[in-house]
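Hello forum,

I keep getting stuck at the same step: I have a sequence, I want structure tokens, and every attempt I make locally crashes halfway through. Rather than fight my setup again tonight, could one of you with a working pipeline run this one for me? It's a single chain of 517 residues.
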Amino acid sequence: MSPHRDQQDAAHAALRRVRREGRWWWLQARHARRVWRWALLVAVLLFMALVLLRRPLANWFWNEPQIEQLLDQGDRALAAGRLSAADGSGAREWYQAALALDGDRSQARTGLARTAQAALQQARDALDAGDLDAARRALALARELQVPQRDADQLAQQLQQRGGAHAGIAVLLGRAEAALQAQRLDDGPDSALPLFQQVLAVAPNQLRALEGREDALSDLLLQARSACASGELATAATLLGSARRYDPGHVDLPQTEAQFNAALEQALMRADRDLARGRTDAAWAGYRQVAAAAPSHPRAQAGLRELADRQARHATRLAGDFRFPQATQALDKAKAIDPQAPSLATARTAIEQARHAQQALRAPQSTRTKGELRVLLERFEQAQARGDWLLPPGRSAYDALRAAQALAPADPAVRAAAHQLVPVLVTCFDDELRRNRVRAAGDCLQAWEALAAHDNELGEARRRLGRRWLAIGSERLGAGDARYAREALEQAAALGVPASEIEPLQARLRDAATLER
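Reply #2:
Ran it on my machine without issues. Output:
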């Protein structure tokens, strides 16, 4: 192939390449023009959308955080009880502002409904506290926020009724405060505490009445403490009772009660010392002082019972010496100390027997009396031979001897029989006490006292029996038998056991009663 031919072929190849590449650029340019048209169309559409939707988009990007902040402020104000405020810091104002930005926001509407209910509750609380103006304002706010009509009307009716009584409450408060100023605390219906109580019966949360009653009770308890310090225990007890009746939870009550109990304990200790030293009148005054302040105090009752028993035994001894005026005087004193003391009946019997004995000594025995006496002494000897000292009733040696004493207490044979029976009764008492048969031992002791009222051993025997009652009562209380323990206390007190020995079992009984409650 010639060089000329080769050049032509190369030229043709270059021409074909130029043509081919030219078509590609033309196609590319044509495609680029189409893309720019679509891009321009999209840009125009976006611009129109921004123009038309500029407000919703602005609310979306800028108002949403502001609404949430307003709702949060409203929740905080509602929790703090600021329901409405002129400066816009109330819950109502915050929720309404949020609702203005977004009328469809349910949280704002719910917040306003909660604010309405809170306003209604504030109105109720203010009404209970006696603040009628605050109750009216809160009710008006609740109505503005559209609480249920029935609830608002019901509260409005209560407010109207309370408003009618408000004038009377104001008068009562004025009278009560004047009485408090004059220190007329609880000495009649027109004194401070009863008047404050009348106000609180109508308006339980009336602040002035509550504060006034608090001040009056503080003054009343101060008077009670002063009475304790001066030994006026009955007055202190009365003042304490009044304070408990008006307000059992008063802050000064525990301190005053502690001082009162300490004063009682001191008075009891003085009375116990006087009793132990034989100062009857001083002991009586001490126990009577405690009993006047605390009528059911066990130690005071036991002390009075012991005093009465001592006087009754003294009356019996005087009657045995035929000193009847002095015996009657001692018996009357025992009755004045404790009218319920069992020893009174024994002393009366002893005095009557002594009177009969004196008459028998002065008058000669009739033939009939001598015959009856002989029969009774024979019955005594027969019962003695059988060993029937106390039983069976009516056929025992003791019953025969008592009948003989009633006929001729000063007869030598009767006296000899009594001296013969007394050791048997003492042995009976000791044996039954050793077996812990305290009731049977008490029967033996009673017979012993009837036959030998002046026996010096009787006092100690009575105390031994009383202590045994206490020991058995303590054991039975440990087994849960509180009823027997209470009976043991009564028996021990009646038998003359000192109050200091009775107190431990009494304390255990009180603790047991507290646990049962």
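The chain has a mean pLDDT of 77. If your local run keeps crashing, start a new thread with the error log.
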